[in-house]
């Protein structure tokens, strides 16, 4: 009798353990994974407009439009997906709170969306012209589903369009995420700004750049970068692809890429960078202005030469070519410096780091007003290009 | 004042949780202690000792003796009593059990020599018999037991003792390769069912005066011979005493297999882990003896027991030492990995699929989602379906006759897996997980350790299904807690991991070159620490 009682108590204790079931369990196929987010100016999409006409709305102001890219929402066999349907689905909603918009999606989707696998966020430059990036990205920073290594881009034109780019059998957000890996081939791709970097940059009030994505005829491309002014957190302008390249070289972030120059006849001659090293020293003048001594050293090979007469195997010809490349490079650098110092009056090439490390006392003084201090400083360039190689042919 | 304190007093829910957190562990502990006490009296519960002393001596009169013997065992149909006369004068009888004395030539010679013997000098009769094990017994009990064990016995009129003349020639299996522990490299000899052959196999491993084999009888209704083997001057005397004590305490009418002994002498009968290792390999036994362990051999079974056992022994194979140290180490690491996979893979699958989709790499997550579309069950049920069918298949594979066993296993596995995927009951990814689990569990060299992991795997799956990764980690911690508390004959089960003995790590995860392993394991506390 006693053992029966003990057994029944044991049984009840065991069932107590199993009865609560699977806490917070959610099968993976019952979730909608979103891999990309695009944030635009508040504008109702066609679907939403239709819904609103039927009374499907809530109290809100349409300040932003968020688009999430869900992969793969469609239930079906592989063949079906390959043949007819696209591998992703986009859904947009407008409102004045990202979280509210996201929760509102629960009314329109059969599965809850989860952000664990979010790869990229594209913010339209139009939106950032008007709004501080902190306001836009605040939810992403706080949400603990979303990883801190999400890459952030700006778009020329509607960000939503970037995510709807029609690429055969490709999910645009993964596509963009993968383009970044081509950095070793092109120095026009900058190190992506991740969510963690963004957090730091925003709070230190530094100006920074975000890679720009452009789109035409449903094809996309990385092109240059948008400048975010540190104090206001707003988009103030665009840097060209060459500017971004120069920034990568100045900050030693990249040692790849090509420099293409034209000789006197107008023939193209291309120099493939094999190594690029930049050293910057900072001095102060009597009047308090800063002088940056920038020494750029590069070695590489002549990979393409259109000139019919030229002979790259001759060292005299190489010397000539080096001159051409040095001129071209300093032209590119000058263009960048002009953009930074004169046009936008910001430092996005990390000159501040140089000052901070080399002149910490000075940095404390100029920190609060750095962008202006930088704009008034002088940058002296000293460029050395060394052709080490001319490829597999002599002529 | 009071109100400022009041705000710090937690609400009743906190107190309730604290109460639960206090009471449940105490309850579990009490249940455990209760169950453990059940095991305490298992050694002494089955009646008092039945020591039969030689109270019924054989007498000098032939007829009286015959009567006594006949009344004891004569009614058996397989007991043959053959009466002869020694030298044509003295009455005598040969008694033996059919089937135990199959050497007809020998039998004829014995009868012949009895007939031709001079009846007047019966004292010298012993020397005349061929064979070395002829001896005299004076007690009727011992005498009849001798007959039943298989001796050919002789009673002669006028002698107050019976003679057991030729030893049993019971049919036995040939020495063959151990089935459950076959190796690619290493000796192919396994124990047989015959204890004397088994001890001989141990002796044949090499010459040593230190190898001691002591035997005794176990079982009360049916007695069997049990031998305890150890190395003198190496084994710790306390350990040896403990083994002897525990073996002496076994009270059971019949010991069918060494598994019975294992269950009687183990430390904790509630633990899923075996605390006694069984092996069919003489080389494994000798290696263990040289480490200061004790082996127990039982007549009638090819499985010898080795005590004490540590966790790492269950994942070691003699091949680790026969191969060079690098491959040996690699294989051993592989087995540790396989044990982990075999224990955890399905529960990790459940926790990733049901609880933590964010921990799967994105591409894999997408593939899984695609393959799991249309699977109607939650991950736990899905895994259980496939795991249980694999377990059934494995169990069935043992029963199936040899020629169709492997074919059936492959066909069953393939067909069930493939069909279940086709039918949309399970996802293809799960089939990979379950297959990897099954293969991993086959790589564990000790069969019974594999069973332990199979049991625990199901527990791990339940934990994972309730609490996800958190539950899986809790389960792992629980296992580690249990293991660190478990002891086998006084030796901590997961030593040298804890208690930490660096010098023993040479033969733990890695197997260092043999010339570096000059000392016996510290954990065994041997009399002689150096291998010489």
Automatic annotation (TrEMBL), chain A:
Q: Where in the cell is it found?
A: Membrane
Q: Pinpoint the Spore germination protein N-terminal domain residues.
A: 25-213
Q: Which InterPro entries does UniProt cross-reference here?
A: GerAC_N, Spore_GerAC-like, Spore_GerAC-like_C, Spore_GerAC_C_sf
Q: Domain (Spore germination GerAC-like C-terminal): give its ranges.
A: 223-391
The residues forming the signal peptide are 1-24
The membrane topology of this protein is:
Lipid-anchor
User: Keywords in UniProt for this one?
Assistant: Germination, Lipoprotein, Membrane, Palmitate, Signal
Q: What family is this protein classified in?
A: Belongs to the GerABKC lipoprotein family.
**Family matches, as NCBIfam families:** spore_ger_x_C
Protein name as it appears in the record = Germination protein BC
Automatic annotation (TrEMBL), chain B:
- TM spans, by residue? 12-32, 294-315, 336-355, 405-423, 429-447, 459-480
Which keywords does UniProt give here? Membrane, Transmembrane, Transmembrane helix
Q: Native species of this protein? A: Paenibacillus glycanilyticus
Q: Which family does it belong to?
A: Belongs to the GerABKA family.
Superkingdom: Bacteria
Q: What is this protein called?
A: Membrane protein YndD
Q: Give me the gene this protein comes from.
A: yndD
